[in-house]
Design a protein that fits this description.
This protein is of the alpha/beta class. The protein contains 13 helices and 12 strands. A 7-stranded mixed β-sheet has the order 2-8-7-6-5-3-4, with helices on both faces. Bound molecules: pyridoxal-5'-phosphate (PLP). The site of pyridoxal-5'-phosphate has 13 residues, from loops.
Length: 391
Amino acid sequence: MNKGLAGDFSMLKGEPPIKFLTKANKMEREGRDIVRFEIGQPDFESPENVKEAAKKALDDGFTKYVPTMGIPDLVEAIQDDIKETRGFRPTKEQIMVLPGAKPGIFFGLLALVEQGDGVIYQNPGFFTYDSTIGYLGAKKQEIPLYEKDEFRMTPTQIEKRITDDTKVIMLNSPQNPTGSVLTKSDIRAIAEIAEENDIYVLSDEIYSKMLYDEMEHHSPAYLDGCKERTILLDGFSKAYSMTGWRLGYAIGPEELIHKMDLLVADAISCTTSFVQKAGVEALRNSHDFVDDIMEHFTERREAIVSGLNEVPGFSCIYPKGAFYAFPNIKETGMKSEELTDHLLEEAGVCLLPGTAFGSQGEGYLRLSYATSLDEIEKGIERLKEAMADIL
Ligand SMILES: Cc1ncc(COP(=O)(O)O)c(C=O)c1O
């Protein structure tokens, strides 16, 4: 008999969408036509110039181990991008290249949080936060998001939630799953609250380049340039449609980045060498690509939100960033998960229950509109018919 596994794995959530995705895949194999709204990844090909850069790196034999912190030309490209987009230039020692932004959440929290420390985060929110915080034995200090606040976590809510144990505030703007975007004054107030209370801010800015209505991105790093307490996470998965490449980065206080460097060295040695070359090309020469996909997302947002507002029992506010619609389904009287199952089975539409992102997601669904306009229109027609039958 073995002695059992370490840690409370019951806290780890894995990927909640898998359950629905697997069922939809099975239905497709059985011949059903399913409209897919569950997947949080852009449907566009990665940029051609980025693919070429990776191919060239392979042909040049750039296939060996590279520095754990990242290759110098990518680190420099990140410094330039941060200067342009956030207004400060981090030192090389403040930057840690990672296989995605997600490892920044995991290694960042691992480096910051001890058992019993409090972590403030949004509910509903990206499921990895709740999962990692729970596994590390940290205290969950959730903040409920309300539709009346356009799903924005307010500085007042944060102030009320802070206790002596609070070590980290997690931000995510633009947000998954609601598409909410914190205003400049929200961000400024939160950064100041963190400073006054000597709390770290882990700011997941993976959707920073995906905004609508001429909104601008704001980061709490404006206050300390990531020198004292802000850890900024960003990456290539969403804006450059590079989910499978696994490339992202963390920027933070040098002391913290050094700790993450030690963890990453033991866990993965380094981020894939030739993928980093592709990252340089993405940051330096792919602005047009991002503009282009955002034009498509703007059209799709209009189609999906206006369509959802015509579905009996649904109402949906416009997301201000990312590519998720988060309709309110409370008028249907059905639970989110029950309705999700029903819509998959009866209407052939796969989406996610708001509860996949936390208890506060009850009464909502999440639809990713990273799919074509034709599919969006087909999906909306099916939802209208299915809901008209029920209500
Ligand atoms: C809020 C948020 N952070 C991080 C990630 C993961 O990013 P990456 O693919 O760079 O690891 C996602 C992906 O869905 C996300 O929604």
